[in-house]
Amino acid sequence: MVASASLYEKIGGGPAVREVVDAFYTDVLGDTDLKPYFDGIDMARLKRHMVVLLCSVLGGPEGYRGRELGEAHKNLGISDEHYAKVGDKLVTALRDHNAGEDVVQHVTTVLNQVRPSIVEKTG
What's the pTM value of the predicted model, to 2 decimals? Predict the structure, then answer.
C-alpha cells in the first residue's frame, strides 16, 4: 500500500512554503491597516518562524518550536477584523501558489482553531 502524500508534499515542500510566506508578508506589509503590527519586527526572523509553523501545520518534517501563539501575540491588540484580514491574505497566497483546496481548507481550519488565542478580547 502506498502512503498518500502529506499536505506539505502536495504544496511542493519547503521551497513552495517559503514562496507562499514571502508573498503573504508582501501583501500584509502593503496593507495600511496591518503594517503597524510589524513596526520594529525582524521580518527575516518572523518569516523563518512562519515558514516552520506553516510547514508544521501541513505535516512537514520540522515541528514548530517557537513561542506559543497566544504568548507571541499577547498585548498586540489584534482585532477580529484584522485577524480575518490576515487569514484571507494567507489563503490568497496559498491559492496564488496553486495550493489545492484540501491544503486551503486545512489551513483555514487551523486558523479558526487558534483564533481565540490570538485575537484580543474587548470589553
Answer: 0.90
